[in-house]
Amino acid sequence: MAHRVHDRQSRLPVAQATVLALPPTSQAKDLRPRWTALDSLLCGAFAGAVAKTVIAPLDRTKIIFQVSSKRFSAKEAFRLIYCTYMKHGLLSLWRGNSATMVRVMPYAAIQFCSHEQYKKLLGNYFGYQGKALPPFPRFLAGSLAGTTAAMLTYPLDMVRARMAVTAREMYSNIMHVFVRISQEEGVKTLYRGFTPTILGVIPYAGITFFTYETLKKLHTEKTKRSQPYPHERLAFGACAGLIGQSASYPLDVVRRRMQTAGVTGSSYGTILGTMREIVTQEGVVRGLYKGLSMNWLKGPVAVGISFTTFDITHSLLLKLHQMGYFTH
């Protein structure tokens, strides 16, 4: 009898250990981190804000040249930056950056978030669930993401352009720009330049996301590492930005001319009319590609920082989910 009791007691801890070592399947599933649309929105907004703040003085200088008939050169661009600094102070180089943040944070958030969603949708449609998309769907996902973001945030881009090329006395803040444009030029003016914007965004966003995703895919295949190092991400983003912005730059010039026509005294009404006038007065290269060299400097930096910040923030949030700091 004593032998039976002892035998039953000796087997009990083993049975308990076995039960404890096998948690229910549903609990194991709940422990896995889940990536949501909100996470994509947060990462995208932060990435856009960091990137645009870094290159804000160069971006403002480019816009000023784009909307004027002055001949562009790197020397003249940096002279303008220096004169602005000496006359109005360091913070004047970031004039209009508040409008940029109001625009770029929702724009980048929507673009990155919708890109993730479009990748999933196209992956399911083409039969590549959880895998890297083939070239055309990869390009299409980027184009759709850029178009979605541009459509939802366009009036903010108009406001930002107006603030960049005018003195503080004309527009005191973002709301003042909205009110004055609506009262003096009509609400439709807030969407002036919308068509060239969309036509420019389709190749720009498509090529940019396509190039970045392709370079990451090739890197993984060659190095057998699932994730690139931060400096490699910067390089991939810089290449993506350089190619994407060069392809769509003339439409960017047209967009800026149409957006600022109300304060520069010009009468740009249509895309072809604007292009014709620019080419007639300034030539093809000096007109439609004015400021492109400045874009080659700021564009790759901005896109590289944006993609890198998004990926790093993405990884950090996933780790925080794993550690149990966030719950959905």
From TrEMBL:
Organism: Seriola lalandi dorsalis
Protein name, UniProt field: Mitochondrial coenzyme A transporter SLC25A42
GO biological process: transmembrane transport
Family to which the UniProt record says this protein belongs: Belongs to the mitochondrial carrier (TC 2.A.29) family.
GO cellular component: mitochondrial inner membrane
Function recorded in the entry: Mitochondrial carrier mediating the transport of coenzyme A (CoA) in mitochondria in exchange for intramitochondrial (deoxy)adenine nucleotides and adenosine 3',5'-diphosphate.
Coiled-coil ranges (or none): none
Subcellular location: Mitochondrion inner membrane
Swiss-Prot/TrEMBL keywords: Membrane, Mitochondrion, Mitochondrion inner membrane, Repeat, Transmembrane, Transmembrane helix, Transport
InterPro entries associated with the record: GDC-like (IPR002167), MCP (IPR002067), MCP_dom_sf (IPR023395), MCP_transmembrane (IPR018108)
